[in-house]
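Case study.
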Amino acid sequence: MDFISILSIFVLACFVGYFVVWSVTPALHTPLMSVTNAISSVIIVGALIAAAAGGSPISKWLGLVAVGLASVNIFGGFAVTARMLAMYKKKERRDA
Amino acid sequence: MHEAVAQPAWVLLAYLVAGVCFILALRGLSSPISSRRGNYTGMVGMAIAIVTTLAIHEIASLWEIGVAIAVGGTIGLVTARKIQMTAMPQLVAAFHSLVGMAAVLVGAAAFLNPEAFGIVDAAGAILPVSRVEMGLGVAIGAITFSGSVIAFLKLNGNMSGAPILLPGRHVLNLAMLAAILGLIAYFTQDQSPWVFFTAAGLAFAIGFLLIIPIGGADMPVVISMLNSYSGWAAAAMGFTLHNSAMIITGALVGSSGAILSYIMCRAMNRSFISVIAGGFGAVASTGDAAAIDRPYKRGSAEDAAFLLKQAEQVIIVPGYGMAVAQAQHALREMADLLKKEGVRIKYAIHPVAGRMPGHMNVLLAEANVPYDEVFELEDINSEFAQTDVAFVIGANDVTNPAAKTDKSSPIYGMPVLDVEKARTVLFVKRSMGGVGYAGVDNELFYRDNTMMLLADAKKMVEEIVKQLG
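After joint prediction, the assembly is written out as follows.
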């Protein structure tokens, strides 16, 4: 992909983000933060590339540490979001 | 060597699907009902991104990667399970710092081994455009890391929440920012390690310096801002790696944090710049000593129980103090007893109540408060006039009528909850001595229709529960 295509994706995604986030109900702003935290750890993709590659041992170890850190975030972020959202779920059952 | 360019179509599609999954994950949060499916969609997106990456690379060290994921994943899961809901702001700050650090490490790895990332030209030098992207990604990541560490320490109480003001800090910060940008520009000409690592080092320092002057109750803005930065860091890395999943996610998270920061600033009637410049709450604490001697009405749990029981409608206004005292469960118990007496209960949430966006909503949800009893400021403010009792617990500045009338008040213009319009205000507060975060005295304490309940929030509510039962 050339720079302009990448930039196009980025700019359009910013607009998507703008509209999607404004539609998030304020009651769920804390789960919004924890789930954005989890998904921003997609940076693990870069970490995996570094960790998988041969050639530079330092680079590989940096990558492995980054894989570990991002994993904390991915598992922790999604799990804590699920835990919070489950609390909101209970009310629906009771109200129904 | 241009691996990124040579990616097969299915790989590009897979990353695109992952990106779409992340959009749907956020989209789901528009209502509590769709939110859980959204969260699962997010997990699927992440799995697609990871599996795709592993599938297209020759992996020299699969078991090491497995160990890294297992160790990190276990730490994450255990933390997520054990963390108390009141500690959510700290946890989010800690998670932000990890994203920041991961971005720095990935950037450093890409700098040391650019061939693996397919960002070198024929001569083996890193492509200039990649250098800028990498430099920006590492700088934003480093700021996110050190800023989040400070935010964590402040939120967790390891460091005083009071602003720490260094002389000449604005000049220093601007100079450092200019130096970082200058170094990144120079990095396109000279790819020596010192340029890269000096820029990274300065970015770590500026993240630290940016957050230490910001006081505790401005944390909702800070934490949203750092959320935004972690997104921009991921996006910059996505540019480096030509990875659409990372770019889409980065843009989503970046916008999300920026919007949350904006909402928080608007709810405090403060500009983003003034929050970032810091020092709020350190300057405004003049003149309250005289105010403390003013007469006020003090009530007991028995008085409160009587008033609450007689009411037709009660609006509960929770704030950070409720979180500190862990009073949310006792509060819900009190509400349940009142409901049995035929009292209508509603909760009013100010956008900046607590230490992060939505903090109060999560605590109330944890205590099993039905979310259709919980209202935002603009939806409930007109109802106070028809309410018998406003029960303020652990909130202060967000109820101060001075924000509407007193032009000299530091919080003038901030949207506040009109609790004083209720027939009676019950104000739970530890003691009369302390002032709210903004350092201003609250007019509300001395009004005829206010009864102060001076005690620890949880103990007071438990007392009221006893009286009701």
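Observations recorded in class. DSSP finds four helices and no strands in chain A. Residues 64 and 85 of chain A are 31 Å apart (CA to CA). We will return to this complex in the next lecture.
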